[in-house]
Amino acid sequence: MSKPLPDIDDLTRPFWDAARDGRLIMQRCADCGAYVWHPQPWCRACYGQNLAWQEMSGQAELFTFSVVHYAPLPGYADQVPYVLATVRLAEGPQMMTNIIGCDWRDVRIGQRLAVCWEERAGGIRVPQFAPAA
Ligand SMILES: [Zn+2]
What we know:
Elements: H1 13-20, E1 25-29, E2 35-36, E3 51-55, E4 59-68, E5 82-89, E6 94-99, E7 112-119, E8 125-131
Antiparallel strand pairs: 1-2, 1-3, 4-5, 4-7, 5-6, 7-8
Residues 29, 31-32, 34, 43, 45-46, 48 line the site of zinc ion.
């Protein structure tokens, strides 16, 4: 059983196209400078619609996390226990993701992380984070 795939539409297509190339991008408001995540048609801070995609460094630190011991879907059965996390990107915004590449017992708040990519069906790549080298 495979993991679910994102619903890709005109709003989110730039993000998934960049992910395919191994680039993490996020919308940023040209009017007030706020980052917008998840992709939205308007800025959550000022409601402006002057949004542009910006490439992110992929560097982050762990803000908070939870260890999941029960698979929410059959595709996750061989993944448990896994780490569901909120990371703070070096540029400031936060995103929900998974921490991979280390034992869940070694995960710590404030840990330095770097983006990496999980391949899913159809060439879809999903951003994950692993301890920074
Ligand atoms: Zn704004």
